[in-house]
From TrEMBL:
Monomer. Associates with 30S ribosomal subunit, binds 16S rRNA. NCBIfam families: ribosome small subunit-dependent GTPase A. This is Small ribosomal subunit biogenesis GTPase RsgA. One of several proteins that assist in the late maturation steps of the functional core of the 30S ribosomal subunit. Helps release RbfA from mature subunits. May play a role in the assembly of ribosomal proteins into the subunit. Circularly permuted GTPase that catalyzes slow GTP hydrolysis, GTPase activity is stimulated by the 30S ribosomal subunit. GTP binds at residues 145-148, 200-208. It is found in: Cytoplasm. GO terms for biological process: ribosomal small subunit biogenesis. It comes from Thiomicrospira aerophila AL3. It is an enzyme of class 3 (hydrolase).
Amino acid sequence: MSKRKLNIQQQRRVLKQRFKSADQQNSQAQPGLVITNFGQRLLVEDEQGTIFNCAVRQHLGKLVAGDRVFWETDTEAGRGIVSAAIPRHSELARPGFRGQTRMVAANIDVVGIVAPIEPGVHPDMIDRYLVAAAQLDIPVALIINKIDLLTSDEDWEELAEILLPYDEMGIDIITVSAHLTDGLDDIKAFLNQKTSVFVGPSGAGKSSLINALVPDLAIRTSSLSAATGLGVHTTTNSILYHLPCGGDIIDSPGVRRFTPSPCSLSELEGYYPDFAPFLGQCRFDNCTHQHEPDCAIRKAVETGDIAESRFASFQSLRQEFAEHFNLSGGQKHRDKVK
């Protein structure tokens, strides 16, 4: 029997109780919020909004922006040491070097997928982040950035055709221009009072959007750079900023190609809601929707009930996951990915 998921309010109540229990065990520690990780140290914000440069106990593992921790004042003025971490209610990760997982953000409530007009809105990139958000069971919005570069009706029609499958799935789509500040009110409404993360490829304009949402970002960035001693900040690691409208936003590094956590074929199918009406209708129970006869999914693609771009991204992920399980010694059956 699967474990019942807690909603955001329930998760926060559980975390609050754990917070109190840990505090009772260690009266010297005080609660803090991780703003960013820069190597062997963290920037941690206390309850008064002051940021401290902190070391981390080795047994705690990798902590990232959004993590809730307990930290203690060190003998060195203005510094501290993180002694405990509160369990996360969600975490976003991406593949790192040599098959290792690299954490991106923790305790996020919503995900904003930033897709730019230039260099281009690519469905494969969008679908990969949609799968990751579905794996976390976190609400998502598709943010189309740089719309000021659309100069003709043909440009808008081409964009509308790309976005049609996502509109039909009921995904929130926000068009915005950080340069012209168009659409910022819609983004603020989506982010209001939540901890969110912007994801997307390099050059998507995530940092520009955050700069438009946080007017004093330059001052905050200078403060963070001074605290780390690393000079001017560039987005090579995730950083959390407080939004004037309420809530927090985590700026994550852009990646060339994002891959969600590998999963079984049946799970991957479930992360494509537009496949749902046709699942179970294939001739073979173990259909991979590649070359098997009487495949309901491929037929739906041929009739236009499933977008070709969505089918292509599904097959791309299916192949990557199959290679992952084979390389890791996983048994080849449908509980993995064929």
